[in-house]
Amino acid sequence: MTEVKAEGNILNSEKYPDIKDNTINLAIPCHTDEEEKQTIDSFKSVCNIDQFNQFRIKHHLNGYFTVFQQKL
Q1: Residue 42 and residue 33 in contact, taking contact as beta carbons nearer than 8 Å
Q2: Residue 28 · residue 66 · CB < 8 Å
Q3: Collapsed DSSP state (helix, strand, coil) of residue 8
Q4: Which uninterrupted H or E stretch holds 46?
Q5: Domain-wise residue ranges, the chain
Q6: What residues are paired with 55 via a beta bridge?
Q7: Fewest CB within 10 A of the end CB: N or C in the chain?
Q8: Which of 59, 9, 58, 67 is nearest to 40 (CA)?
Q9: pLDDT of 9-63, one tens digit each?
């Protein structure tokens, strides 16, 4: 992976502390509340959402993402 700016790396724990070590993360862009609701509804239709930690983060360069996280 080539990294132009360190802020762009979503695995940078200093910039994105919610992305924890030893986890699997699915980060989906969502710039509005409606997009976030649609993303959550779609995710619910394919897996048991209760098994995942779900939260929203603001990427320093690309805006908001909904993240589904599961500890390994």
Answers
A1: no
A2: yes
A3: helix
A4: helix 33-46
A5: 6-71
A6: 67
A7: N
A8: 67
A9: 887 778 889 999 899 999 999 989 999 999 999 999 998 888 999 999 998 888 9
